Amino acid sequence: MEQRHSISLHRTEEAMKRLGTAIDRLESASARVGAGDLLLAGELRGARDDYAQLEETTRVVSNRLDAAIDRLRGLLEE
């Protein structure tokens, strides 16, 4: 179970890294284009919102997995 937890967290961390890279690219593109491109600014805002939601989801999943692992360890120790 712990291995699944590690794999799940690793995949989530990789997804967050890719999303962070995408946000960086959008910010760079936004700076080059200028403030007049409202579409790009909207996409950047959306990417930031997605990133924040992914961070929250990752936190919740991690906490739930940790709690499940702790419960299983407790059962195995009995």
User: Strand count, sense and closure of the main sheet?
Assistant: none
Q: Proportion of β residues?
A: under 5%
Number of helices: 2
Helical amount among residues, as a percent range? over 70%
Query: Topology as H/E string?
Result: HH
The count of DSSP E runs of length 2 or more, i.e. the number of strands, is: 0
Q: Tell me the overall shape.
A: rod-shaped
What report would you give on this structure?
The chain has helices at residues 2-33, 38-77. The protein is an all-alpha fold and 78 residues long. It has one domain. Helix 1 runs antiparallel to helix 2 (38-77).
Features:
single chain, 78 residues, mainly alpha
Give the SSE layout:
Blueprint: H1 2-33, H2 38-77
How would you briefly describe this protein structure?
With 78 residues, the protein is mostly helical. It has helices spanning 2-33, 38-77.
